[in-house]
Design a protein that fits this description.
Layout (H helix, E strand, L loop, with lengths): L2 H12 L3 E8 L5 H9 L6 E4 L9 H16 L6 E8 L7 H8 L3 E6 L2 H13 L4 H10 L5 H11 L6 H10 L7 H9 L3 H6 L5 H7 L5 H9 L9 H8 L6 H9 L7 E5 H6 L1 H11 L30 H5 L18 H7 L5 H14 L3 H8 L2 E2 L2 E2 H4 L1 H12 L1
Parallel strand pairs: 1-3, 1-4, 2-3, 4-5
Antiparallel strand pairs: 6-7
C-alpha cells in the first residue's frame, strides 16, 4: 500500500482529526441511497463513493492516495472531519487488505438486501455494459432480431436464463483486477471450504496435495511469498471468481474478520427503505451521527452528493436524481429465473441466500420487540411487505418466532 498516505490517515484518526464511517455492501443493494442519507447528517463533513473500485494495478496504494486527497480537501484547520466512505464488498481484497482498511475506521456498517432483488437489478444494469456489436452478435445467435429486442424480451419476462453464456463470460471480465495477483492471491488463500468441496476434495490439504504441495499451509505460503503463481490453482480461481462480483462471499468474509470489540452495525435495505423514520435514527445513533429531516428529505439539504464516477453505465443516476429514500416496491423472481451458474451462487451451502439469512438473523436478534412487530406489520403504499417480498418477510417472521 502507499505507506505515506496510509500512515497519514492513520495519524489523523489516532489524533482525533478524522473519523471514518465505512459502509460496505454487495452491489445493487441500495448502498448509495444509505450513503447519501448518512452524508446528509449535519455531523458529516464529506462522503467518498466506492474508492476501492477506482483502480486496478497497485490498488491499495492508489486507493489510500485518493482517500487522503479527498480528506485533505475537507480537513478543517482545527477540529474533526467525519467522512462516510461507501464500498462494494468484492472490490476490497479479503484478509490483510480488509484489516488495514478497518484499522482506520471508527464504525463499520454492513448493508444487505434480499439477494434475488439485488441479483435482478444486477442482471438489468450489467446488460447496459455490453458493447453494442457484442450484444447484437449474441442476440442473433440466440434467435432474437437484435440486442435491443432481446433485452426488452428478457426484461418483460423477468427470466434471465437467456443471458447464461454472455454473463458467464462478463462476470469474469467485468473487473480487471480479478485477473491480477493482488486480488487473486488474497482470494485464493481465504477460499471457503465449500469451494474446495465443490471441486471434489474433502479438505484443504487434499486439494494442496493434488497440486503438488505438502499441505494447504505450504500452498498458501507459496502464493503469499510469490513462489507460486495463482494459476497453479486455476480451477480454484474459477470457483472463487465465477460469481464473486455479486459480493456475498466477500461481504461475509469481511464481516467474519471483524474484532468482537469493533463498532459495527448490520442494516437491511428493505427495513430502512420501508420504515425510514423508524430505522434510520437507530442507524445514525450507532454511527454516533445526528439525525435530521435532511436525512430522509434530500430536497431540504444543501449538501452536494458526489458519486465519483464518470462511466457510461448509470449506476448512480437514480440516487443522484432522487428527492429522498424511495420505498421498496420491487418483488423478487424465483432463483430458477437466473442463469444456472448464478442459481448455484444463490442457493445451497454458502450461497447468497444462506449468507443473507445469517445477516437478517443478526439484525433481528438485536432488534427491540416493538420495532420487530412494526416491521412485520409494515405496508408500503397500502401493500403489506409480505406481498412485496415474501422471501424477506418469511425470514423476518421466522426470526420473530425464534
Amino acid at each position: 500500500m502507499s505507506a505515506a498516505a496510509y500512515e497519514t490517515l492513520q495519524k489523523l484518526t489516532e489524533t482525533g482529526r478524522l473519523e471514518i464511517i465505512h459502509l460496505v455492501a454487495p452491489p445493487r443493494s441500495s448502498s448509495t441511497a444509505l450513503e447519501r442519507a448518512l452524508s446528509n447528517s449535519p455531523d458529516v463533513t464529506a462522503q467518498i463513493n466506492d474508492p476501492w473500485s477506482l483502480y486496478d494495478a497497485d490498488r491499495e496504494a492508489q486507493t489510500y492516495d485518493y482517500i487522503l486527497s479527498r480528506v485533505a480537501a475537507v480537513l478543517p484547520t482545527e477540529g474533526l472531519a467525519r467522512v462516510v466512505i461507501k464500498d462494494i464488498a468484492d472490490y476490497i481484497p479479503p484478509g490483510s487488505a480488509w484489516d488495514a482498511m478497518t484499522a482506520l475506521v471508527k464504525h463499520t456498517i454492513f448493508l444487505v438486501r434480499e439477494p434475488l432483488l439485488a441479483m435482478e437489478s444486477m442482471m438489468q444494469i450489467m446488460a447496459r455494459e455490453i458493447p453494442e456489436a457484442e450484444g447484437e452478435a449474441y442476440a442473433r445467435s440466440a434467435g432474437y432480431d437484435s440486442w435491443k429486442v432481446m433485452q426488452q424480451a428478457v426484461s418483460v419476462e423477468r427470466d434471465y436464463r437467456p443471458y447464461e453464456a454472455l454473463y458467464k463470460d462478463l462476470f469474469r471480465k467485468e473487473q480487471p483486477i480479478q485477473q491480477l495477483p493482488e486480488m487473486q492471491v488474497p482470494v485464493l488463500v481465504t477460499t471457503p471450504i465449500t469451494f474446495i468441496r465443490r471441486l471434489g476434495f474433502a479438505s484443504y490439504d487434499a486439494y494442496a496435495v493434488a497440486k503438488g504441495f505438502a499441505s494447504w499451509d505450504a500452498l498458501r505460503d507459496a502464493l503469499l511469498g510469490g513462489k507460486a503463481a495463482p494459476d497453479v490453482a486455476s480451477d480454484l480461481l474459477d470457483e472463487n471468481f465465477r460469481c464473486r462480483i455479486t459480493g456475498w462471499t466477500a461481504l461475509w468474509q469481511h464481516f467474519s474478520r471483524m474484532d468482537d470489540n469493533a463498532s459495527i452495525d448490520v442494516v437491511d435495505a428493505t427495513m430502512f427503505r420501508a420504515l425510514p423514520a423508524s430505522f434510520l435514527p437507530g442507524i445514525f445513533k450507532q454511527a454516533d451521527l445526528r439525525f435530521s429531516t435532511q436525512v430522509i428529505d434530500w430536497k431540504s439539504s444543501d449538501k452536494a452528493f458526489n458519486p465519483d464516477y464518470e462511466g457510461e453505465v448509470p449506476y448512480y443516476d437514480k440516487v443522484v436524481q432522487s428527492a429522498g429514500i424511495e420505498p421498496p416496491t420491487e418483488t423478487p423472481v424465483p432463483p430458477d429465473h437466473f442463469p444456472q451458474f448464478i442459481q448455484e451462487s444463490l442457493v445451497g451451502d454458502e450461497g447468497a441466500l444462506q449468507i443473507y439469512e445469517r445477516f437478517v438473523h443478526h439484525i433481528m436478534s438485536r432488534m427491540p420487540q416493538e420495532r420487530r412487530q412494526a416491521l412485520v406489520e409494515a405496508t408500503v403504499n397500502g401493500t403489506p411487505l409480505r406481498d412485496i417480498d415474501p422471501v424477506f418477510y418469511d425470514l423476518i417472521t421466522k426470526n420473530e418466532k425464534e
